UniProtKB/TrEMBL annotation:
It holds the Pfam family Epimerase. SUPFAM superfamilies: NAD(P)-binding Rossmann-fold domains. This is NAD(P)-dependent oxidoreductase. Gene3D superfamilies: NAD(P)-binding Rossmann-like Domain. InterPro entries: Epimerase_deHydtase, NAD(P)-bd_dom_sf. It comes from the Bacteria. Residues 8-188 form the NAD-dependent epimerase/dehydratase domain. It comes from Saccharobesus litoralis.
């Protein structure tokens, strides 16, 4: 359970990990970070809010004791994995193996809670509403994500898996995604979540009493907006001229449910996915 006195280790100081660290530090937590770049380690040492920062390259040569040593140095009672799966990168190591190493290291240390950021890519693209129990290894990517989630079973403390919908926010404007799209559906729902709501929801869920905290929770906006409507709004707000919009089709798609998150009492920072576009 996250409190003002918590000691937190965030593995990954990137687009999500670094702002999450700063938000936790403002709550009074002692926040520690790991980076894969020596240059970034040095730059983050100047961040007054960060209590400590260490280099950590999670690859095929990583060992449990490497991560355990950093956990012990940080004296962390909460560990957060905020690094991407890296499926497109060669020699990035197996994602599930990375999480096995982290879970095992947490188990032999004094860690009380482990948070993993996963993805709503574990739900098949079909015309249905997907709740947390609907995850399925329907393709290679989903199978690898679920294997990584299952790796948390190596840790016997409190675990929290947050399945993130499509991410956008500062330095990640959804308007820039449009040029890579071959077509956009006028029917399929745009399952999206802004960085600010990812951070706010993470803090909210971590501060719940253990008996009230879920083991898995979707982070996605509740509004029903088609992909075509969302990306039309995104391209209008994107400061790039002469960007053409891809063809619109009638492809069906999933709708990821945030009912559990709402039942737990979370209040979204932004009213819906369209409103959040203005904060990128």
């Amino acid at each position: 359970m996250l409190t003002a006195n918590s000691r937190v280790l965030i593995i990954g100081a990137g687009w999500l990990g670094l702002p999450l660290a700063k938000a936790m530090a403002k709550l009074g937590c002692q926040v520690h970070l790991t980076c894969t770049s020596a240059a970034k380690v040095e730059s983050l040492k100047n961040e007054k809010l960060i209590a400590g920062v260490w280099p950590l390259l999670l690859d095929d040569n990583s060992q449990v004791h490497d991560i355990q040593k950093i956990i012990e140095l940080s004296q962390a009672d909460i560990v957060v994995g905020a690094f991407p799966p890296g499926f497109r990168k060669a020699n990035s190591g197996d994602y599930a193996t990375k999480w096995q190493l982290i879970a095992q290291a947490c188990q032999v240390s004094k860690v009380k809670q482990l948070l993993m950021y996963s993805s709503t890519a574990v739900y098949p693209e079909q015309a249905s509403i997907c709740v947390e129990s609907d995850a399925l290894a329907f393709n290679d990517k989903a199978a690898k994500l679920l294997q990584a989630e299952q790796a948390l079973q190596n840790f016997k403390g409190s675990t929290l898996v947050l399945r993130l919908a499509g991410l956008y926010g500062p330095n990640r404007h959804p308007g820039r995604f449009v040029k890579h799209m071959k077509a956009v559906s006028q029917i399929a729902n745009a399952n999206m979540i802004h960085l600010d709501d990812v951070i706010a929801a993470s803090l909210y869920l971590l501060q719940l009493q253990p008996q009230s905290s879920p083991s898995v929770c979707n982070l996605v906006y509740p509004n029903q907006v088609s992909k075509a409507q969302f990306y039309q709004a995104a391209i209008q707000a994107y400061p790039v001229e002469n960007m053409s919009f891809p063809p619109v089709d009638q492809t069906l798609g999933k709708t990821v449910s945030c009912q559990l998150l709402q039942q737990l009492g979370y209040q979204f920072v932004y009213a819906d996915s369209l409103a959040a576009i203005q904060h990128c």
